[in-house]
């Protein structure tokens, strides 16, 4: 199969090699191993985004087609129809276009692409509007644009094979979209597993969060739990690894909160680490993985699979698809509940049997959610769908 792939995440070509953020590069490489060719239609990064281009595509059958700079969404929307000629040039050389949605270019590219389109829906612009640090008037404009984009996305989905990586989204759309498939996105490869029987063998006990540094991920709740844990006699530190939003002073506010609570020495930000040995090292020296997301529309954080594959017991909030996908393989607590979060950590620190049970269950779940397995499934489903369309 000759596959086109579009997403709004930038990529660049340097010295004849294609570079992009690791989580996207791993996904593209996994697809390429099952395809004759993959052509990626992606924006070129802006200056401040160059640091994110930390993964070199390994597959020789991947080609990058630039679709212009990764400028602001309003400007990308305005110039989107001018980009259509780029997609038009490639139509005869590809069998299908896989679009990672939502994306500002979707309405424009769908208007010119006459070959089959498959969608991979991994988020919801509407769901995050209220969390934006924007004036109310601007939020309402963003909400209007998001509804317009979603309307076109749903229209396109009526004639497309549509993958969703959220149980909630699947349940919402299963009667609205004819060809809907639930999938699970991951960055975990078959060689990314690390076995240990138990954690929490010695203080200080390391709580770990990895991923985007967003206030909606419940990071303030974790910091507020630290003095309660310390007062109960637990020597804990909170390690954060990830990329902050350049427009959100969340790190400064976390540090301010930690100082006000007297736990500034227990909160440690380590910066962004690309997928690979350096990031894995943080998982493998941690004791408990903690994600206190407050996002009701949360899909499923791929970092949970990474934590489970590193033999980490997990504490997570009951939001989005998290309960549906991991069930009793983690300690689940209500969002925005510091007391419940604190108690969950205490339970794991004081009950080795519980930790070992979660480690075993998590490892089994992670083994069923590797890049290799999910990419093969996705490509096979696209091929079967294309075959049915040509009958």
- The fourth-level CATH homologous superfamily of the largest domain is Glycogen Phosphorylase B
Low-confidence stretches: none
Most strands sheet: 7 strands, parallel
Class of the largest domain in CATH? Alpha Beta
Q: What oligomeric state is this?
A: single chain
CATH topology of the largest domain: Rossmann fold
- How many structural domains in the coordinates? 2
Strand-and-helix sequence, N→C?
EEEHEEEHHEHEHEHEEHEHEHEHEHEHHH
Strand content: 15-25%
Q: Just name the CATH architecture of the largest domain.
A: 3-Layer(aba) Sandwich
- The separation of the N and C termini measures 17 Å
Percentage of residues assigned to helices = 25-40%
Number of H/I helices: 14
What does the radius of gyration come to?
A: 21 Å
| Class from helix and strand fractions | alpha/beta
The gross shape turns out to be globular
Mean pLDDT: 93
Strand line-up across the major sheet? 6-4-1-7-8-9-10
